[in-house]
Amino acid sequence: MAKLSVFNFITLDGYFKGPNEDTSWHKHGKEESEFSEESLKSGNILLFGRVTYEMMAGFWPTPAASGLFPEVAKSMNAAEKIVFSRTMKHAGWSNTRIIKDNLVEEIRKRKQVQGKDMTILGSGSILTQLAEQGLIDEYKIMIDPVAIGNGTPIFKGIKRPLDLKLTETKTFRSGVVLLCYQPNME
Predict the structure, then answer these.
(1) 33-80: per-residue pLDDT in tens?
(2) What pLDDT is recorded for position 10?
(3) CB 48 within 8 A of CB 82
(4) In angstroms, rounded to a whole number, what is the distance separating the alpha carbons of residues 74 and 66?
(5) What's the CATH code of the domain at 137?
(6) Can you give the pLDDT at residue 176?
(7) How far is the C-alpha of 48 from the C-alpha of 32, rounded, in Å?
(8) Which stretches of the chain score pLDDT less than 50?
(9) Are the CB atoms for 56 and 92 separated by under 8 Å?
(10) Residue 146: its pLDDT value, please?
(11) So what's the pLDDT on residue 185?
């Protein structure tokens, strides 16, 4: 069975993006970049909602991304990507497919087959929908040492509690902390 994980960064006050989609508060330094490089070696299919996809597609294929984070940019651009969107007509970023309908059923089907694992990057509404259905196998949350006062919470609109168990932690020299959780099956 394929596994589904989430990788997201948030503020200390629980927001994964600030007002107007702002993520400039996230400081991705050398150590965090090395962690991202290592994570991308898994070859997982990357999953996005439209807003996150457009943000990522506007950065990773650029010379600026290649200059700042060469290995991460190379891996992001080469990765197989799926964007869930009812409105997009064309995906210009390499190796991207658009799926318009039935997010939950599509993920259920993909999880049932032996194939590539999948990772949701950002994409709050997709994360919430799949978390509520119990389809996420692992949550990797990178907490930046900053509070921004308002924005979009990582689990905005979730309707049922998530009972998670901590499986791993990593502290970066920058003060960023990575927390890894799995659903508690007890």
Answers:
(1) 888 888 887 888 999 999 899 999 999 999 999 998 898 899 999 999
(2) 95
(3) yes
(4) 7
(5) 3.40.430.10
(6) 94
(7) 21
(8) none
(9) no
(10) 96
(11) 77
Contact between 32 and 176 (Cβ < 8 Å): yes
Residue 130 half-sphere exposure toward CB, CA atoms < 13 A: 34
**CA 68 – CA 71 distance, rounded (Å):** 9
Q: What is the total count of domains within the chain?
A: 1
Query: What domain range includes position 8?
Result: 4-183
Cα separations (Å) of 158 from 56, 153, 164?
24, 10, 14
CA–CA dist 16, 20 (Å, integer): 12
pLDDT of residue 27: 78
Average pLDDT, rounded, for the chain: 91
Any idea how long the chain is?
186
Cβ(166)–Cβ(179) under 8 Å? yes
Q: Is 164 left (phi over 0), alpha (psi -120 to 50) or beta?
A: beta
Amino acid at 143: I
Secondary structure of the chain in the HEC alphabet? CCCEEEEEEECCCCEEECHHHCCCCCCCCHHHHHHHHHHHCCCCEEEEEHHHHHHHHCCCCCHHHHHHCHHHHHHHHHCCEEEECCCCCCCCCCCEEEECCCHHHHHHHHHHCCCCCEEEECCHHHHHHHHHCCCCCEEEEEECCCCCCCCEECCCCCCCCCCEEEEEEEECCCCCEEEEEEECCC
